[in-house]
Amino acid sequence: MEKEEIHLKDWPRILVGEVPGIFYVEILIRVAAVYLILVVSMRLMGRRMASQLSRNEMAALISLAAAIGVPILDPNRGIIPAVIIALVVILVQQLISYWAAKNERFEGISQDIVSTMVENSVLQLDNMKNARLTRELLFAQLRSSGLTHLGSVKRLYLEANGAFTLIPHPKTQPGLSILPEWDTEFVAQQHQVPGMLVCHHCGNLQAKTANDKAGKTCSNCGKQKWVPAIQ
């Protein structure tokens, strides 16, 4: 279409387009066919396509959407190419899943591995750095589970699909508060444990001694900022 043919008052073109009216009947057939292709493709790729997706499954789904969406609106494109693309995507996804089940190393390369973000109420900073996960985002995840300090966490795993798995501590111990520091009213309601300090950076728990006034270094992360432990 030439730019001279574009007018803002050309409502028939804006609303209906320049295709014949019979094409809208054809769209019904195309949408039904594309819908069937998507449902069958996702069924063949397994039940995980209906749950939280891994990066490979997300790439497969986006590839299907990009390839299959075009024939719905373009009368010059047939449905057969979309079927071929869907078959290729299914085949590649099935091969990746097969080799991932056979080879643990390949599984880690293609789908990532599980990482421990919190271990025995202490942040695993190296793992968080590798996962590009900040303290604020991790604390937000824990708060969404109803927790207020790290002492309630035995393990927090970041699964390969990006989901978090929380294992509560069977016996809550003193830990680092995960409440926002600006929420001073709520922070003030937390019970501090006398004689116990936690590293402000990682949550490492230490008994308070006279040397703390000189700026004791955390044995876990090397920082020197300590705050009262919360029970």
Automatic annotation (TrEMBL):
GO terms for cellular component: plasma membrane. Residues 102-173 form the YetF C-terminal domain. It is a multi-pass membrane protein. The chain crosses the membrane at residues 22-44, 56-73, 79-101. Its main location: membrane. Pfam families: DUF421. It comes from the Bacteria. InterPro entries: DUF421, UPF0702_alpha/beta_dom_sf. Keywords: Cell membrane, Membrane, Transmembrane, Transmembrane helix. Belongs to the UPF0702 family. This is DUF421 domain-containing protein. It comes from Larkinella knui. The lineage of its organism: Bacteria, Pseudomonadati, Bacteroidota, Cytophagia, Cytophagales.
